[in-house]
# Entry
Amino acid sequence: MKTYDESARIRTLRVVVFIIFGAIFLRLAWIQLIDSRYKEMARNNILRHVVQYPARGEVYDRNGEYLVQSIECYDFMVVYREIPGEGFDTVRICETLGISRERLERELASARMAPRAPRKILGFVSQQEKLQLDEFNLRGFYTVARTVRRYPRKVGGNLLGYVGEVTEDMLRRYPDYRAGDYIGVTGVESAYEDVLRGRKGLRIETRDVHGAPRGSYMDGAFDTLPETGSSIVCTIDARLQLFAEELMEGKVGAAVAIEPSTGEILMMVSSPTYDPDELVGRERGNNYMKMLNNKRRPLFNRAVRAKYPPGSTFKLVQGLIGLQEGVLKPTNMYPCHMGYHNGRVTVKCHAHGSPLNLYEAVATSCNAYFCYVFRNILDNPRYGNVKDGFDVWREYVESFGFGRNLDTDFIGEGDGYVPDRKFYDWRYRGSWNSQTVLSLSIGQGELGCTPLQMANLAAIIANRGYYYVPHIVRSVEGRDSLDARFRERHYTKVEPKYFDPIVEGMWRGVNVGGTSTLARLEGLDVCGKTGTAQNPHGDDHSTFLSFAPKDNPRIAISVYVENGGFGASTALPIASLLEEFYLTDTIQRQRLVDMVKSKNIYYPAYDK
# Structure
């Protein structure tokens, strides 16, 4: 007869067994009816999901010429667990792809860490190499089609930018991308990535138990086709861009041209530049590191990021502010005895007639004249003190687009720099006046402007007081129009009527007698202003600002050459030749072209 304790133990054992079998039953039911993971694992043994990469949208210039094309290439992939146990012919693979055995083994070792996941062995595989690989019938290896960029004109490296594989940091910032995807890194490629990239597709392939392909799953019922990216028409004139890069070769600086009536950027050159094809293909990494270590910084886009002192071109802004403020009239005469002299303050100037009026001061680029104008602006009695007058001056300057971002469609645009009163209070411990900051009157001192901002100033004067936001893209496939901000006029704080004396002075400087006479083009009424920016680290910088024709202008341009000397000696000839080429579609001054191309300006600071 069983005791009470024995019966209790038996009942307890039965309950435990029942619970165990119940748990097993529930787990099996869960796996069979609800949990799809094992079904997916089984399916993955016979299915391969292959990403279909879209072609990026192509880029054209304003005249329909290709700037960027997409050409076909392939990625060589491996799924490590599908490699047969008996191995494969590594020699044939290495010889076909032109890679070392050590590299192949290194990539396979990485693939072994995640044996079920596809792993890229090599990118930029040509169609001929792909066909040879297909003949080998390598189990576990396959190719994925994608496109790479090609640059028929080989121009605009910094302008167009380049495409690169997403980094880990990018993957964290852009969740729509996956490892192995490519993305626009700089320039137009980056600014318009959302329209150029297209949409990826997916192909599902079936395989037998040995991993050999058996065709599309369900006859492609679940496949999705890739969508090609939208094409873009740039505002750039490819022929003008190419000519500008040729003229700027051997020099450090930038050149920017704008169509004043639209704000479209006709040409944007940063020098030294690079062949954009060098950042495509298997040598891309090596080429990139060479450029990155080049002390002349070809990857740095000076046209939109460099902060240069504008030099004498900034005198145009001083004159406009003085006219608007009522402290200057075009007929006002000021003396110049080889410069401005007041006590211990001296600002030197070159030889020219004295005294002179505003028209003559602009034409001859008189330093002394604009020192007087600048002091009259800041010392204007109606503002009570010089610091309040300085604040008013600064507001005018900012209305011309200086000291701030112009809100273009170009990634990485710099702000330049316009100092404020807090800066001078800090530097001079609150004790300063109009003579303390007198270097600002001639575009020196702490002022910093990008070449794009200076070209925009030329467009403002050409338009007599307003500008359109400069932009690099004219139209996007599938869109009726661009952003409304590119069609809006932005007015300065200076009324249009005050621009006429400045324009007249610029016209005289080119066509009557002044510092810009070399820029004269018969019948085109060119207006220009030279600038020589002092440089404490070497020869002065050369700059020139111009637009043409005087009425109904078609081009506004700024050229800046580091260590180029006088504005008329280096920057002016480049700008003038570009204006001639754009407005007449020809060049009559071949000797000037040869002179400019032969001028290589050595800048020792870059080679230290």
Q: What stands out?
A: The chain has a mean pLDDT of 87.
